[in-house]
Here is the input.
Amino acid sequence: MLCLDFEDRLTDYLDGALPAEAQRDCAEHALRCPVCHDLLSEVRAGVAACLTSLVPVEPAAGLEARLIQRTAPESAMTCEEFENHLTDYLDGFLPATLYHRWERHAALCANCTELPGAVVRSIGACYTALSEELPMPATLHARILEETIGTANAREVRASPGARFLERLRALLDATVTPQFATVATMLLVAVLVGTTTISDDGSIRGMYRVGLRLAAQTYVRGATSAAQSDSLPEGLRRVAGEWADVVSESAAQEARGKVDAKSSDQGDGK
Here is the structure.
């Protein structure tokens, strides 16, 4: 094998990509030829040095964002749009397209880079302040009394013993009498409803009152008549009872005649 052929096949020889016979020929030539042997050693040492010194280099911060901004400027975002989408970004509700545009703007804009961190720290401070129980100032109670009643000494505006006794009595009466008043009011309401629907002639409270007066007059007439006819009462009482019975009967008769006349008058006006 010539040295020129060895140099042409050196890369494939090191990679082990040659056929078995060609691989053996290159190895024999490297052993016989000092020049090619030194070349092979130098190439092997150089490859080893490259492999040991090769350290992955991190791209500069914002390199991808700057490349996209240069190649696709229409995808850029303004600072106002960045602030409008800040809450959605922190809550995780930002769509994918807006999400990447938002992050590229945060990496490139010096005014907006620190804004998300500041907002997150402010929210954390608010939650911390709400969860912590702050001590009450020592003079708060005195200041409240001073602003409301004009003095920090509550004994100076304390009510008199009589007023306190009346207030306690009123509270006791309210606790005991109010439920009874409610029951009585309910019973009166039911009685009025039943009376207006069953007793009253026109379905009103006034009609129920007139019927009640008429029944009372009838009851009084019966009682007076019975007293006038009783032999156990003195003559004077029987005479007075009879006269009052006649007066009440006449009054009831006049009232009845007045109602009939008024009804007839209303019917005539209607015709």
